[in-house]
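Page header: ASSEMBLY MODEL / two components / 1087 residues total.
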Amino acid sequence: MDQNFRLSDGGLINRDKKLSFKFNSKTYYGYEGDTLASALIANGVHLIGRSFKYHRPRGFFGAGVDEPYAIVQLYRNGETEPNIKATEQELFEGLEATSVNCWPSVNFDIGAINNFLKIFLPAGFYYKTFMWPKSFWYKVYEPFIRRAAGLGVASTKHDKERYEHKYEYCDLLIAGSGPSGLASAYAAAKNGARVILAEDKSRFGGTLLTSDVNIGNQTGKEWAEGIISELKEMPNVTVKNRSQVFGYYDHNMLVMSERISDHLPKTKKFHPKQRLWYIRAKEVLISSGSIERPIVFGNNDTPGVMLSSAAKEYLKVYGVLVGRNPLIFTNNDSGYETAIEFKKNGIDPIILDTRKDPQSEIVEEAKNLGINIKFSYVVVAAQGYKKVKSADIAKISNNKEQLGSVENIKCDCICVSGFWTPTIHLASQSGNKTKFNEDIDAFVPGTSKQNETTLGAANGSYTLDRTLKSSFETAYELSKKITNNDNKVSLPNIVEKKSTTHDKFWCVPLPKGKNYKRFLDFQNDVAVSDVEIALKEGYRSIEHVKRYTTLGMATDQGKTSNLNGLQLVSNIENKIVPNVGHTTFRPPYTPVSIGAIVGREVGKHSKPTRKSPMHTWHEKNNAIFVDAGVWLRPRYYKQGNENLFEGSKREAKNVRTNVGVCDVTTLGKIDIKGPDAAELLNRVYTNAWLKLPVGKARYGVMLREDGIVMDDGTTTRISENHYHMTTTTAQAANVLSHLEYYLQLVWPELNVNVVSTTEQWAGAAIAGPKSRDLLQKLFPKSDVSNEGLPFMGYIEGDLFGVKARIFRISFSGELAYEVNVESDNGNFMWEKIMEVGQEFKIEPYGTEALSTLRIEMGHVAGSELDGRTISYDNSLEGLLSKKKDFIGKRSLTREAFIAEDRQKVVGVVPLDKKTSIPEGSHLVKDSNAPLPNPKLGYISASCWSVEYDNPFSLAILKDGKNMIGEKLFVMSPLKNKVIPVEIVSSHYVDPKGERVRS
Amino acid sequence: MLHIKCPHCGMRSQNEFSYGGDATVKRPELNKEVSDQDWNNFVYNRKSLRGKHLELWQHLSGCRQWIKVERDTATHEIFRTFKANEDNS
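Prediction written out in full:
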C-alpha cells in the first residue's frame, strides 16, 4: 500500500525523488517537497497521536502553522526534538518520528481511559482534583500527571548543533509572502526601499499556490514565482523562506527564526541549524494572512475532520487526497473551492452548506459540476473512533436552533469551513488596538502603536483585487516616504471568482439525548461544556476563562480556537464578541527552539571563558582550575595523589618558608592619566592621595555613596600624572563604570582619563622570604634591596630584555612583589620566574593557597567586602580620612554605622584546634538556647593555618571589638556541626606586619 | 529591545547600554554641610514615575559615555537623548 492516497500527477512535489521515512518504527515513502503530514496522509495514516487531556485519537487538522495537534517527536542525525508539527516538518531521507502523549502505543493507549473518566476532568480539573490528601501529591498525582500530560520529551543530551544570531536593519520588513506580501515587497523594492520578505513555509506564494485566480494573464502560482525570482535578483531585497517572524517588540524590533537545516537529514558542515534574526525595520508590513476557523459539532476532533483549506492544500500542493469520500461542511464559499478541487480530481464530494440559498459564481460552478449540495444542512456529529467512518447530519431550521431528523451518511473525512480569522498576532504584539469587524466576525488590527500596517487577509480583506490594490498602494507610499523615490509599478489585471457572504453560524446544537463532546480548542482539549462550566462557576473575564479552561493557551495560542471560544462566551453572557474582547497574543507566534533563542551564548556562564596568558603552562603543570567570575584560575597544582586540602597546604607552606608564584593577571587594572588624577583618587578612595610620590603604591578602599565598601586595591603613581589602579577580579568592570560616572557626570571639570588595561598586562605575584633573592636574579641590573625598593615601592625593570613593572605589594602578608609585563610576554615571564626560582625551591600556588595566606594574615577580601559591610566592619576605619570629603563619607554618620556594638571582623579558632569550621556558619553564645537562637555573627572565610597548623577562620561578629577572648559556638545546621570556639584577633599571623617590610 | 540614539555614536540597540537611573538627581557638593534629609534624598529616594522620565544610560559596549535619555516609562517611547554635559531643558 505505497502512497495509495497520492494522485497520479499534480502537486508541487518532486516525484523524481522518492524518500523513505519512519513513523512509529514503520517505514513509509514520500517525495521530496512533502511535509511529514502530507507523506503520512498519502500513505493513508491519519492517527498521529493522542490528545492532551482525554487521550482521544488525534489526526491532522491543518496543513501548516495552524495545526493544533499533529505534534510528533522527531529524530534526526542522532538527536531528538519534541513539539514538532508534522504539518510543518519537511520530509527528508531517513526521517524518523514517533507519536507523543500515548502509552504504550498510539493504537492502544491506556490513558484513553481518561476519555471515559471525563466527568472527572472538567474545566479547572488541575485546581479541583489532586488536592487531597496532600501526601499523595509527590508519589501519586504528580507522576501520573507527568506521564499523562505533555507533548514530547526534551533531549537530555548536549545539543551539538550550532545556532546563530543576526542583527539586521531594513526599510520594510514584510511578514508573509502571500498575495499582499508579494505585492507590497515588489512595489517597495521597485521604489528603492531595502526590503526583507519573510515566508514561514518552504514555498513562497501563500494562498496563490492553491487558489484558482489569474493575475496579469498568469495563474496565481506563476505570478508569485515570477515576482519572487525578480525580487531575488534585486540587491536591495532579502528574500527568506522557512523564516517565521514570531515576535514584535519595542521600537519596531521583530524577531524571526530561520530554519536553515531542519529540512535536511544532516546540517551541512559550517552551517548553523537555525538562525535568529533581530530586525529593526523602519516600517513593518504584516501580511500574515488568515486561518480558516472550524465549525463546532459533535466529536469534531475525530481524525479525518480537518479544515477545508487544508484538504485543498494537500490536494494542490502535495497531490494527496485526505479521503476518497469527502464530506464538506461549510458556512461560506471557501468550502466549495475545496469541493471543486476534489471533483476535478475524480472524487465525488458532498457539500453541507448551513446557508439556505447562497448565490455566487463559485456556488454556481459547483452546481454545474454536478456536486451534491445539501443546503441548510449541518454535521451533528462525526462517527468513528480512530478515523471518521460516517457522519450524522441533519437539516437545520432557519433560526439555526432546531435540528431536523438525524440521518447517517458514509464518508471518510469531513472538511470544515467556518470562514476566516485574520492572523493578527504580530499586530497585537506590537501594541495595536484591535477592533471587531462585524462583516467577518473577527478581530482586525485597529490603531497602530508602532510603525506597522496590516494588509490583505490579515486585515480582513478577502478578495484578491482589494488585497493587491491596497498592498501596492501602501508599499509604494511607505517606500516613497523612506526613499523619496517615485517609482510606481502598475497593478496587473486580476481575475477571480466572486463569492457571496458567509453565514454567521459557528456551533451545531446538540441533538436531543446526545452529549457529544464538541471541541473548541483541539490542542488543549477544551470543549464547549468546559467553557460553560467555567462561566457557571463565575469566571467572567475572558483572561480568567482562558486560564481556568486552558482555552487558547500553549503553543497553539488559539490559532483555530480563539474566536469560537469568544463566540461561546458572548452567547452565554448575552454580550457581543467585541465586548468580551480577546486574550493577549503572546510571542512566539509559533514554537521556537530554545537553541535558536540561546544562539552562541552556550557553555559555562553563557559567555566566553577568560584565560590568562599563562593558562597553557598551568594546564601542563596539573593545575586544577576554579571559576573566578568568567576567568579560569588555578586553584592548586596537583602533585601525585594530593587533594585540594593537601595541595593548597603544601603551596601555602612553601610561600611561608621559601617562595611561591601566583598568577594574578585576572586582577582588574585601570590606567589613569591627567593633571587631576590625584584629585580623582582623593575623592574616590577613603584615604589621602594628594601626597603620594611618584614610584610609590598605596592601598585604598572605595565606598559606594551609601557608605558600603565597594572595592579595594592598590594604586601606583607611575609618573607625575599617570597612575595604575588595581581592582578585585570581580569588581573590575563596576569600578571602571563608577569612575566614568563621576568623571563624566558629577565632576566633569576634572581633567582625567581612565581606561581598562586588565587585558594588557600579565601579572605574577612572587611571595615568600626568598622572594627578594629571586627578584634580584631576575632583575640583576635593578636595585631591589629594602632601600632601593621598599614596601609599597615601584620600579621599572628589564626582565631578560622584556620591560617589566615591579610593585612591592603583598596580599599574602609575606615579603612579596608583583611583576607585570605586557600580556604577550606573560608566559615568558612565568617560565623565567620558574626557571630562575628553582634554586630557591619556588612552587606555583593557586587561589586556595592564596586564600589561606590572606585569611591567616587577616587581610579582608571579597567574602568580607561583600556589599553589606563598611570600613569599620573590616577594620579599615584607619583609612577613613577625617580631613577630606570622599564618596560615601556622609553616609558613615548613619546611626547603625556608628552603633557601639557594630559588627567587626575577628578571628575564630576551634577550642580543640582540630575541627574545621564551615564557611557561612553562625556564631552563637549558647548552643542549647531555644530557637530562634540569637545570631551574633557569621563565618566569612575559613582556612587551615599553615603557620600554626590548626583551623582558622574570619568572622563578622557583633561587637567584635569587645569580643576578643570570648568563648562562643559555631553552629552549622547544614553540616550538623556545633563547634566551641575562641574569638581572637583577625590578624592571626604577624600582627605587626613586619614580614612585608622586611 | 529599545533602540537608543547615543548622541556620540547614533542609533544602537539596548543591549549595548546599561541603565543608570534618574538623571535629575544631583550629587551634593563635596566638603559642604548636607542635611540628613538631603543626603537621604540623594542616596535613596527615587520617584517611580509613570510617563516621561529623564534617565541615565551608559553606552557600555560602545563609546562608554554616560548619556541622558528622555523616555516614557509606560510606552518606552524615547523622546530625546543628550550628552552628559548637554542642557536637557
